[in-house]
Design goal:
This protein is of the alpha/beta class and about 170 residues long. A hairpin with a 2-residue loop joins strand 6 and strand 7. Helix 1 crosses helix 2 and helix 1 packs across helix 4. It is built from 5 helices and 7 strands; from the N terminus they run E-H-E-H-E-E-H-E-E-E-H-H. Helices cover about 30% and strands about 25% of the residues. Strands 1-7-6-2-5-4-3 form a 7-stranded mixed sheet. It is globular.
């Protein structure tokens, strides 16, 4: 079952990522699709903020992987846009990144062919002027739980979020 939401701007895309991140603390595989400039990295920035990372988040287009070793867990941010041959993924030890406790955010997963393990959640972002439509499609029971909770929380909290709220609440 697909879940959909409308995000008015970049700020809402970050906020949606923050809400999504609340339900990814046990790891998982999130595959993010969309055209160039549709907000894939912006969404990842929001997820990373939930885990306490407030630095610059750039798409790892040339390095393929950006690791984030954080107090709350390890996040691997992939950008496979420039991947020429899916077999290249074997050289980077792909299976080691996708261990159960890690969170893997993968932009352009379609570039990997059949080399990636199954996703928990597939996300598609579609840019419409400065707004975005986001479609979440669960691919596992874990993914269904993540999508349902994220969209329920979004409908309740979308206008009340402070970008540091989740991290600071858990620190105190």
């Amino acid at each position: 079952m697909k879940h959909e939401a409308h995000l008015k701007n970049e700020e809402e895309t970050i906020r949606f990522g923050m809400i999504l991140g609340q339900f990814l603390h046990e790891g998982g595989r999130v595959y993010i699709k969309g055209n160039l400039g549709s907000g894939k990295t912006t969404l990842c920035r929001g997820v990373l903020r939930t885990f306490g990372f407030f630095g610059a988040v750039k798409s790892p287009t040339f390095t393929l992987i950006e690791p984030y070793e954080l107090v709350k867990g390890t996040i691997f941010h992939f950008d496979l846009y420039r991947l020429i041959d899916p077999d290249e993924l074997e050289y980077i030890g792909l299976e080691e990144y996708f261990q159960c406790s890690n969170l893997c955010l993968v932009e352009w997963p379609e570039q990997a062919g059949q080399k990636l393990p199954p996703a928990d959640v597939e996300i598609e972002l579609m840019l419409k002027d400065k707004a975005r439509d986001i479609i979440l499609q669960p691919k596992s029971s874990k993914g269904e739980d993540i999508c349902t909770k994220a969209l329920t929380s979004w409908s309740t909290n979308r206008n009340r979020l402070d970008c540091k709220m989740f991290w600071e609440d858990e620190e105190s």
